Amino acid sequence: MITVLIADDQQVVRQGFELFLTDHPRIEVVGHAASGFEALQQVRLLQPDVVLMDIRMPHGDGLTATFEVLKEFPKTRIIVVTTFDLDEYVFGALDLGAVGFLLKDTDPDDLVDAVIAAADGGSVLSPKLTRRMVAEFARRKPSAPVEFPDHGLSIREMEVVQLLSSGLGNGEVADAMKLELSTVKSHIGNICRKLDVRTRVQIVIWAYRNNMVRDSRVR
Description:
- The chain is α/β, with parallel strands linked by helices.
- It folds into two domains: 2-124, Response regulator (Rossmann fold), CATH 3.40.50.2300; 134-209, Arc Repressor Mutant, subunit A (Orthogonal Bundle), CATH 1.10.10.10.
- The protein is 51% helix and 13% strand.
């Protein structure tokens, strides 16, 4: 059973998400929180597998709560839920280790799929939003050359990083490299360990911050 905590300052959103999620036999909503502070308290009490975390909440925002939760419970899978698909706070949450983000108008079936994917160790970013996020990183990319970090990645692993940074999902990476999906997932796991990051989203952030992306495919 996947246990879920819903953190949002709007009661109608919390109740709506619970209604969608509890229809699935693998998911149990174990608690609600109306603020970032309350979210942290509820995580401490309930230790859910997945937290749906709103960003803009009173009495402790979701960004601070994400940082505090992952500091104490690093295995918790946090999905940022927001009204804005390019909100600065969302980028901050992903940087801190949230496994992805969803928009509040996400289709109910996609919400369920996202919770299951997060619990199973995946990242939660639709191809549409992934490419928009990558485009934003490309826009911010420093033009001045920087010294490449000593990352210890193999040539094959760097190829995976390049494809992820182009906005491709795991299946698309597997097709591009003519590899099994399981092999791609293994490469991503090795990359995360070498870079000391938790998610494929953080791999992309690392690549752009260190000027490691040679050619973005985003148009």
